[in-house]
Amino acid sequence: MSGEGNTGEDEREVMAVVPQDAKAPDGGWGWVCVVGRFFIVALSAGLTSGFGIMYVEIINYFDTTRAETAWMSSLFGGMNCVGGLFGGAAIERYGCRATTVIGSILACAGFVISYFSPNIYLLCFAYGILVGSGFAFMYVSSSVVVLQYFDKRRGLAMSISSLGDGVGMLVLPPLTYLLIETYSWRGAFLVTAGITLNAAVFGLLFKPPPYLSKASQKRSARRSVLHSFKQLLQNKLFFVFAFGSFLLHVGYTVPLIHLIDLVILKGVEKSRSTLLMSVMGTASLVSIVIFGWISDLPNVSRIGLHSASIAVLGASVMAVPSLDTEVAFFVFAGIFGVFMGAWYMGQGVLVSQIVGVELTSIAFGVHSLHTGSGMFLSSILAGWLFDITGSYVLPFYISGCLYLCASLVTLIVLIARRRVTDHSHNHPATRDSPSQM
Fold it and tell me: What pLDDT shows up at residue 326?
């Protein structure tokens, strides 16, 4: 995780390509945007992990197979790729504020339609497509606006806003269980619709930082979304990193969505199984703060930290099928939560560092295309494998292997980054040029 000499500073110098006239305020109104992203991340993470409870209820209500029901979460992930891509383009054209509000309205509408759904097919459309695309819009825009406001404190700002990941996993799964017990799964969807609409309020606070509001007026006439995308295509290092994210997300939802079903099948009470997500959330809360601070230290390689965290996640997921006791499952939830927090916090920071602040919005959209494609395959693949084999052994093994492969790909990015660093030392004049690796 630590490089030789001052590799952490070299990494920031080579990878953070910022225009001469663009100076992030590293504070000010940016902290308001941090709070807004906190709320949106909490919603996204909490609802993703809480869907494992909803997943079991819908299987029982509609008497569907796990593969059929998994289409809901798979379409949700798929729309994260399409919605994220269009979200990045929308930010380029309309800004983070309008994009967030549109996403909140879309997600709210999806939850309301889910309440009235008479079958699994309409649920797949409402939850998978509408809610999925809405959250993609909100996540991309909230991440971009925070990255635009911060440079030197970027790791700290992203880690604080990413605390929503842990809070969401701590609060929303138990709340989802309580809502289902009180109002049924339909009522839970309706209450969630009202909660989601509050994201529009935070979206209205996402005004652009002063340097971008002035600079964008000068550049908007000559730089279109297509032009930004063409610039991004020249950055090979970014697409290697995005491919690693794709591999990880093919296995990503398996422990989050199917863990509760697995432990219930192993004899753990449903009310106890929902606490696993809360343990993950609590562990994630602590780790995001700690790893966010560590990632900003001068001698720490953020990419190395990212890769190591993914490797631990993969190893822990592969161990799940061999666990038999309730205590063992809670230990896994704690370990997974700690390193999930470290991985989650680093994603946005690394994307921005690799491509530079001007291309951050379009890069987030393209990155979402990769991660969403992986999530689309993830849940439905796990449900299909369960229906064939009758157990979750193979889905969890494959998920763990994919995490490990993603860690290796991220190591390739680390090696390539060091080559760029060495080249910059030997040719100082090229240091201010965008990395084409």
Answer: 87
Contact criterion met (CB below 8 Å) for 3 and 301: yes
Mean pLDDT in residue range 345-358: 78
* CA–CA separation, 7 and 378 (whole Å): 35
- pTM of the full structure: 0.67
Per-residue pLDDT tens over the stretch 4-61: 333 334 333 333 334 444 567 778 888 999 999 999 988 887 877 777 778 878 888 8
Structure tokens, 223: 């730089």
The three-state secondary structure class of 159 is helix
* Residue 1, Cβ density class (10 Å: 0-12 exposed, 13-18 middle, ≥19 buried): middle
Concatenate the DSSP letters of all residues of 198-265 into one string: THHHHHTT-PPPHHHHHHHHHHTTT--HHHHHHHHHT-HHHHHHHHHHHHHHHHHHHHHHSHHHHHHH
Positive or negative, the Cα torsion across 94, 100, 102, 103?
positive
pLDDT band at 359 (very low <50, low <70, confident <90, very high): confident
Contacts of 109-115 spanning 24+ positions with Cβ under 8 A:
109/134, 109/193, 110/134, 110/193, 111/189, 111/190, 111/192, 111/193, 111/196, 112/189, 112/190, 112/193, 114/186, 114/189, 115/186, 115/187, 115/189, 115/190, 115/193
Task: Check residue 5 and give its pLDDT.
Answer: 38
The H-assigned helical ranges of 150-209 are 154-161, 163-197, 199-203
Closest CA to 211 of 377, 26, 56, 54: 26
Cα–Cα distance, 251 to 399 (Å, whole number): 4
Q: What residue spans define the domains of the chain?
A: 25-217+224-427
pLDDT at 331 exceeding the cut of 60: yes
- CATH level 2 (architecture), domain 25-217+224-427: Up-down Bundle (1.20)
The rounded radius of gyration (Å) of the Cα atoms in the chain is 21
